[in-house]
């Protein structure tokens, strides 16, 4: 059993959980992930190790609620336990001294890019961080990211904070003004794809961390199959990091959608009964309170 030491809601539907997992914390390297199961009847879901504290024996995960398992995870509290957590899984990032590394993170991809940026900096590289979000209300991990880079940039789709536009547009602007030796891009699949399209004409190696559907996480089931440079790879054991300019993103995006119907049904069932139903009504009360506070602030100002 793995105890939740701390749980924080960072923004709407984005949570940070610190888990007691001393064996994983001892071995974890940047770029690696865990596969967890919440309860006996839970499915296995992969989440990146956003941070690890070897002395405390804990690891942190940063996640966005997208379906039943992430919703269930968000409904747990500090002191609750997960039935199993396997890891660290996947190949660690290849951290070398290359010169200037641009680390671009979108949304909860920031959690994955955080230990990577820190490791590149510790290896003597100059690190430029680019963080992108839909809007300023969704910004997370800003202080943590500022602490591990030499140069910090932020962008929002709606222009409410920093550069107005997408991560790829800001990366393009930086590449036109600066010498960069390596790009890391982690976030939603479309964001990683557009960053790769942007870096291709600049001929800069671009590493991405892929997020196909995974089941066992040990190379046995084949569900995380991706195509890289025309070759079939299993993301859980050959990745999750790959040369982004070689990735078949069309195949990845098509395979990410194969269980949409089942995922929708599973979420509906969870929210219709037991713990899920109770948590849903608690969330509704909280949302209404937040809305009322927002309206109150508007009236006062
Ligand atoms: C190596 C790796 C690292 C990841 N790290 C993070 C992270 O740090 N933070 C984070 O928020 N998310 C991360 N993800 C995605 C996360 O695993 C999925 O969001 C989660 O499994 C969805 O489960 P669900 O039941 O809540 O949603 P579901 O209803 O199952 O699915 C909703 C959507 O999530 C995707 N998805 C579903 N199951 C999986 C699966 N087993 N593996 C991957 N994607 C899936 C599908 O595209 C689907 O449309 C990672 C994925 C991989 C492969
Ligand atoms: S998750 Fe089964 S082979 Fe990768």
Topology, element by element:
Elements lengths: L1 E10 L2 E7 L1 H6 L5 E5 L7 E4 L2 E3 L4 E7 L3 H8 L5 E2 L1 E6 L10 E7 L2 H14 L3 E8 L8 H5 L4 E6 L6 E2 L2 H11 L4 E5 L2 H11 L6 E4 L15 E4 L2 E4 H4 L2 E3 L5 H8 L3 H13 L1 H27 L1
Parallel strand pairs: 9-10, 9-13, 10-11, 11-12, 13-14
Antiparallel strand pairs: 1-2, 1-7, 2-6, 3-4, 3-8, 5-6, 14-17, 15-16
Helix pairs in contact: 2-9, 5-6
Bound molecules: flavin-adenine dinucleotide (FAD) and FE2/S2 (inorganic) cluster.
CATH architecture of the largest domain: 3-Layer(aba) Sandwich
Tell me about the largest β-sheet: 7 strands, mixed
Strand ordering within the main sheet: 12-11-10-9-13-14-17
- Give the low-confidence spans: none
Q: Please provide the ordered H/E string of secondary-structure elements.
A: EEHEEEEHEEEHEHEEHEHEEEHEHHH
Distance, first to last CA: 49 Å
Rounded average pLDDT: 91
Instruction: Give the CATH H-level superfamily of the largest domain.
Output: Nucleotide-binding domain of ferredoxin-NADP reductase (FNR) module
What is the total number of structural domains? 2
- Identify every distinct bound molecule in the structure, by name, code or SMILES: flavin-adenine dinucleotide, FE2/S2 (inorganic) cluster
Percent helix:
25-40%
Enumerate how many helices there are, as a single number: 10
Stated plainly, the CATH topology of the largest domain is called Rossmann fold
């Amino acid at each position: 059993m793995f105890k939740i030491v701390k749980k924080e809601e960072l923004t709407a539907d984005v949570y940070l959980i610190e888990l007691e997992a001393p064996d994983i914390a001892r071995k974890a390297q940047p770029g690696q992930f865990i596969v967890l199961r919440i309860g006996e009847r839970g499915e296995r879901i992969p989440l990146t190790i956003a941070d690890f504290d070897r002395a405390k024996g804990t690891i942190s995960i940063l996640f966005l609620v997208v379906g039943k398992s992430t919703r269930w995870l968000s409904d747990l509290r500090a002191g609750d336990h997960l039935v199993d957590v396997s890891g660290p899984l996947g190949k660690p990032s290849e951290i070398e001294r290359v010169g200037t590394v641009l680390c671009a993170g979108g949304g909860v991809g920031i959690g994955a890019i955080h230990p990577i940026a820190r490791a590149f900096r510790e290896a003597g590289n100059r690190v430029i961080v680019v963080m992108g979000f839909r809007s300023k209300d969704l910004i997370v991990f800003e202080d943590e990211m500022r602490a591990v880079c030499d140069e910090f940039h932020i962008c929002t789709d709606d222009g409410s904070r920093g550069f107005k536009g997408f991560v790829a547009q800001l990366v393009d602007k930086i590449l036109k003004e600066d010498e960069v030796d390596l790009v890391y891009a982690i976030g939603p699949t479309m964001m990683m794809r557009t960053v790769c399209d942007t870096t291709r004409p600049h001929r800069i190696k671009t590493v991405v961390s892929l997020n196909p559907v995974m089941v066992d996480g040990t190379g046995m089931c084949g569900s995380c199959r991706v195509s890289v440079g025309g070759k079939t790879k299993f993301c859980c054991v050959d990745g999750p990091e790959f040369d982004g300019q070689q990735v078949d993103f069309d195949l990845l995006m098509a395979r990410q959608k194969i269980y949409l119907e089942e995922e929708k049904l599973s979420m509906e069932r969870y929210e219709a009964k037991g713990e899920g139903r109770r948590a849903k009504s608690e969330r509704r009360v909280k949302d209404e309170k937040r809305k009322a506070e927002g309206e109150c602030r508007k009236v006062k100002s």
